[in-house]
Amino acid sequence: MSELLQGLSLIGAARGAPGGAGFTGTDPTTGEALTPRYHSASTDELDRAVALAQAAAPVLARSSGAQRGALLRAIAEELEQARADLEALVPRETGLPQARAAGELGRTVGQLRLFAALAEDGSWVDARIDHADPARTPLPKPDVRSLLRPLGPVAVFGASNFPLAFSVAGGDTASALAAGCPVIVKAHPSHPATGERVALAVRAAVARCGLPEGTFSLLFDAGITVGAALVRHPGIRAVGFTGSRAGGRALADLAAARAEPIPVYAEMGSINPVFVLPAAVQARGGEIATQLHASVLQSAGQFCTSPGVIVLPDGDAGDALRDQLVALFAGSTPAPMLNAGIAARYAEGVAALGDVAGVDTLHRNASPPRNAAAALFETDAARFRAEPQLREEVFGPMTLLVRAHDDTDMLALAQSLEGQLTATVIADATDQAQVAPLLDVLADIAGRVLMNGVPTGVEVGPAMVHGGPYPATSDGRSTSVGTAAIERFARRVCFQNLPDALLPEALREANPLGLWRLVDGARVRA
Amino acid sequence: MSELLQGLSLIGAARGAPGGAGFTGTDPTTGEALTPRYHSASTDELDRAVALAQAAAPVLARSSGAQRGALLRAIAEELEQARADLEALVPRETGLPQARAAGELGRTVGQLRLFAALAEDGSWVDARIDHADPARTPLPKPDVRSLLRPLGPVAVFGASNFPLAFSVAGGDTASALAAGCPVIVKAHPSHPATGERVALAVRAAVARCGLPEGTFSLLFDAGITVGAALVRHPGIRAVGFTGSRAGGRALADLAAARAEPIPVYAEMGSINPVFVLPAAVQARGGEIATQLHASVLQSAGQFCTSPGVIVLPDGDAGDALRDQLVALFAGSTPAPMLNAGIAARYAEGVAALGDVAGVDTLHRNASPPRNAAAALFETDAARFRAEPQLREEVFGPMTLLVRAHDDTDMLALAQSLEGQLTATVIADATDQAQVAPLLDVLADIAGRVLMNGVPTGVEVGPAMVHGGPYPATSDGRSTSVGTAAIERFARRVCFQNLPDALLPEALREANPLGLWRLVDGARVRA
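The joint structure predicted for all components is written out below.
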């Protein structure tokens, strides 16, 4: 593998030059600097990558669903062939266990094949045909047909916490390529070797499929200059991002201030409130405590959907559930975090939370360096509503119990929340009266509303929404997981009175692609 | 009618107070100030309108498609009952002829009924169901279901040039209400009485349907304070706008700078290039000249889709078409413009264009005050590409002929264009070789691509796109005309493992609403 990894950006089929500011990956369990050394892309390299993407864009826009499907399947195959490399690189750069790397690779290739199937099926373009009526008065009705078309070159910023599934060949890249958009990825500096290895797989697939080299590029950067320049570049038409609120908002602000603003789809995390209702607490508090504890601690709490707030009723049953959580947290072992910055921010966040007046620290241990020890806090609903700091995500294995007096208190708390990726209700049949109004409020603030489960674990399928109102994302109308993610990278274009032969195949009268279409307002496939 | 019109904002079922900065409508043909005098909404009135809209939002979000359809049909009926008033008010405030007012009213009620049918059909929510698989390994697959839900209160800014179809009860309002969003309209100050009369019709419909008063409000303002405050208000979740580039961009910038950014759908007009290919010029230059002249002069050129640039080949046939246009323009009569500001900006725009080096004035007359005389200019493709000023819309009955040497010159010109609402190709069968590459480029820059027609006249139907890349709109993924306009005011929300009875009806297993849904990836209605 060492001969594959050069520490240089991939500018289409070429490599960037050494010379830019250097950096390395780090083994988060030891702090050891890893090889190779990575070199930041130059402005010229960035311009070249965008120019190549712009040249590739019309070719990809004209490519068939079969061709896009073949590309995505080839990327999946190349990644599977890189399995041994990736199962070694991911743990080394992220501290995540090898089993997680293997599982995440499976998820990543599954996503690529899901989008391949979507592109091959082709109906996602939502083709619409309104037939002409030359006899209509006072004016003849024209023939009007429309479909979704790719936006053009997309910039993708991967996440630190999913080095495969939300990174170089993750959901943003898969959905953009499926839509027919070239992709330029800004590599996450926390797992550069993983990024480079995945990028080599993507590049090999692009070459195998005979597509233009500008279909895909990968840029390294020690800082934030390259990413900012990419979002500002006039050739970039949309941005996908997974990461912090500060990072996502900064990119959204840059994009909105362009001469020609572009959409930014930033998934920025949330506190993912869980509401445990009285009858459920009463009936199965112990089971609920075990589930929630596991969800909070999974992957050291380094999930966008980790439950950061658990709302529990006052009273003895709530106290018992809390005490069970305290015991479980006390028995947990510290785990390495993805990088030193995340570990430091977690330590700061936990310390700050413990200092908030009215917040009790139920469990908190010192962590070994680079590790995170689970932490558990408690406050009441009135305090939670009054203190904005309590609504901020602390990324890591912690949660805040919020005690509510009654239904009204719980509902008021739900109404006070900002936008969330997820909101969960844990309830029993006898909680029924309380559940419906709570679900109503949660559907207004969250992208995904769950019952009797935990928010961690995001299923990849047509119905999934991994999004939610600001500040969970920068664009609450979008999802970054599931097939609806493709809609982020397309726009509807309509054609009026074009001869059949000049129409895109998806819009031709005979429906040669066999798509589901909306013809004169009716959904048909004939 | 005079007793109906009070010159005061409609804050739900109540009226604003007099006292704010005053203004009046003006008869654009005479400059005469009209009655009644209008009073700007106060900050308190704005806050009240938003609070009422926020209170109405959950009720509308829960309303059935049948209820939304009934509201939209009731608005259409109320507008038809106001026909005599509107056919008197519109010409008086806008200078548009009564026949145009009648036609635009027909279009407006037609749009309302189209969105009523869309809401009643209900399939627009794009319901998706991914069934559970409890036996899946390593983890059971959850039940995941999603649909589009309304965003909440929407602010609408109507256009001066469509006092009915793109104003108080126009496409933005119809699509937002159909989605289940309350609407607050900032009345256009150029036709306040028309706005007030339409708002009374909407309010009557809201009351008839037993919906909360906050479903609809109308705010007057002499200046831009109320509009800016509305876009900044935390209770507003999205903005629809039709107007100038400066106005649309200003609102988009305000919305992007909010603590919680919101989407702005601003349709800002464009120059709508028309490419006339050599064989078509040769075969039917006279007919083309007549069509284009009529399109440029329709409603004094006061359409977002008015053809502001006509690309013609060099040579004798192109010269002949040009000369025919010159003769037609010379024979046209000045027409009143919508208001004094628009007339003044037209006069300035025409004067400035005549002063650009390399631009020849082919026809230009002085206009009587408040009127616009048609103007015709000519330049070559190289000059057009080099001079950014020539790409700016001059709103009114003018067009710029751009002469191209050959196919390559024409294609290069197309590639140099900014985002457009429309782009038109006029071609004959023997132009075929040139057409396909040109269409490819135009589909990248325009919302609607036409052949052998004129861009004025926007059909309202499921396939229509009245949108296009920036600067034609602030959000190139959207359309403000046609049923796809509803998608602007909704976001996808997903529900995981909810019991059937707690799901929205659209997602229940038995499909009680009979919707087209995506079930386990397949489009079905069963």
